[in-house]
Amino acid sequence: MPMMTRDVLLEMELEEDDEEDGDIGNVPASKRPLMAPPTLPSSLALENLEQTNVSGFGSLKSQQDFRTPEFEEFNGKPDSLYFNDGQRRIDFVLVYEDESRKETNKKGSNEKQRRKRQAYESNLICDGLQLEATRSLVDDKLVFVKVHAPWEVLCTYAEIMHIKLPLKPNDLKTRSSAFDNFNWFTKLLQVDESIIKPEQEFFTAPFEKNRMNDFYIQDRDTFFNPATRSRIVYFILSRIMYQVRDNVKKFGINKLVNSGIYKAAFPLHDCNFSTPSEDLSCPNERYLLYREWAHPRSIYKKQPLDLIRKYYGEKIGIYFAWLGYYTQMLLLAAIVGVACFLYGYFTEDNCTWSKEVCDPNIGGQIIMCPQCDDECPFWSLNVTCESSKKLCIFDSFGTLVFAVFMGVWVTLFLEFWKRRQAELEYEWDTVELQQEEQARPEYEARCTHVVINEITQEEERVPFTTWGKCIRVTLCASAVFFWILLIIASVIGIIVYRLSVFVIFSVNLRKISNGTDPIQKYVTPQMATSITASLISFIIIMILNTIYEKVAIMITNFELPRTQTDYENSLTMKMFLFQFVNYYSSCFYIAFFKGKFVGYPGDPVYWLGKYRNEECDPGGCLLELTTQLIIIMGGKAIWNNIQEVLLPWVMNVFGRCRTVSGAEKITPRWEQDYHLQPMGKLGLFYEYLEMIIQFGFVTLFVASFPLAPLLALVNNILEIRVDAWKLTTQYRRMVPEKAQDIGAWQPIMQGIAILAVVTNVGRELSSRAVRSASPSGNLLPQKYPDTQGHDHCIHIRHDPPPGVLLVLLHPAIWGPPRLLNGRIHQHKPLHLQYCRLQKRSQGKPIRWV
Q1: Which of 329, 323, 274, 332 lies closest to 303, judged by CA?
Q2: What would the pLDDT profile of 23-37 be if each residue is shown by its tens digit?
Q3: Per-residue pLDDT tens over the stretch 259-270
Q4: 404 and 492: one domain?
Q5: Closest by alpha carbon to 81, among 670, 833, 639?
Q6: Which residue from 214, 303, 619, 671 could staple onto 391, CB 3.0 to 4.6 Å apart?
Q7: Number of domains within the chain
């Protein structure tokens, strides 16, 4: 094919272009998403915007170069989801500022942006989409471009995307469960079926145009539901090119939004959340979700997961299904935790060693060595009387029982969630999703190297060679390792602060002590140091989080994963590894290292040759660990609510006050949605991250704070409704996405579960074994050097292998439920029948990928 000049618009329809560009990923060149379907007109891409003359198309300044959307006046129907003709449904909305009405001196830049946008919209029209533009009623600079996908385009891309669509209604009867006898109780928590009707089940298969008659098409307007239509249109918008410059292709709505050419791009909500639509054809799903899911009066009801999945997609649905299941399981852990806490509280007066510490004749007669070298005095053991009493609440026999219980609980939760997830995969038809998922457009655009597929022995394009991939992985791993070292450095800084400020508190608190102030009973040097260090640690955690989030996204973009699932899993592992070290490092230091290397009386150990190593309270570091957990968990919950609830609400109120002046105006649905907040590129990623961090606190250090499951339960009950409220009232509608499971979060939780056995069961058993195995039944050793080694030996002897519980319980629990297995076996004959029909038709097999 002859080389084009730099000012020539690119033809993308011709077959010789397919041969030159080759395949992108595993999609044939004739059907790859960056190309227009062969039956549609050719599409265009700008090259060298500085040129004013384009060969074969005249001047770029002329509107004849591009196919532009028609401008229409608003028809006065604020609830309408259709073009002005009332027939074509709005599947997506693009928003931009008209450059001709901007008050700016950058005319050249505005002209470039205008021509890029015109080229992009022209390519959308050439690709078969239909556009209609309307000016804003509030701000005449804003233009809303409404996008509609006609039937032919939907069918073409449904086949490219391997979207599963209904073959026939599922008329197979489900077997009754033994738990059906308790329906009288569960109905109290269920959503009223007269309000939210159950979804009809269908047998499905990947759509193919040449087998269209086999699909359950009763009405072309409803065969593709709104969520599927939005998915298809977004798939097209993400892959349409608008510029080719120096042989580099620029494409996709995301780049255009990031560069400011478009202000926003989003699908529409179907109605107002507070009132149903006046349009009788509107399903009012947003209104139903707000009324039966997000409203505070529905806080006791089960979530309408099927409607959530239908309206927002499987990815949102699986998140709320997991969060709801996790919250239900927390109920049992919270009950046991409260019982163990109450046991410790009511048996506090029976704690022998606390009585001895507080007794003036015992603890008052024991003189302790100074805790620092210069200014610290000798002190009596009964000074720690109040802290020892509080410690008895958390360090009781009930705590040991609770630690063992949580080891079993976390295993049961993970295994039962796998069963529930398998049910959702079948019900939501995502069993074969990984084979159906398309490559990301960013990946496709970088596929320039040709390799031989080891399985198919065919040529395919990849973005880089094996050596290039190794270099990228090495650089990414080095960057992550560097940031982890940075966190460890911050933890060391906090330790230095603890060592230095402890001396100051010890001296100052002793000077101002008058023996009558009751606060001085509780504000000890250890407590003051612990609280201030925890607050500083929390501030550092928040600052590092903000910085690393951007760094992790940059690293993952450089890594260039193939599919969206691969991208999210890679980002998830990087973010969690960082967050794990960031949030838990200080807790691990207090739980396992503080006070373990202080030396002996007369022979203390110094850190950095200057600071004397920290010592725990005579009763141990458990109370300090509890303080650390309360500050981090409480501060994190408050900060997240400010970020997730208060800020979006304030910004939405401010936006409405700024744009609406004078009398109230009737604004269309697309303009109302534009003034809502965007959800963000990563969707609910940060919601997952927040809950997994909480899951770690609940399981890893729960022996130090038995009330953690109760606090997590209350937080999650509110979190579900707050997240629902945000999605339905404060945020634009997200593009519906498919998801088979919770992704990389599942193995992360399994790793936390194994580690939790070590931090809880092992720690509790070993500390009590040391007491029982000591010569006189107490913690007084015969020789100082033997104490630490004896502790380690007992720990190794009594600590069960971390994976024992998982290994024992996994075979007994894991496996799809019997009812689900029966339904899958009932479903197979229809699949086989459809395959046989497909083979008879032109010898072309059905694609179950």
Answers
A1: 323
A2: 333 333 333 344 344
A3: 889 999 999 998
A4: yes
A5: 670
A6: 619
A7: 2
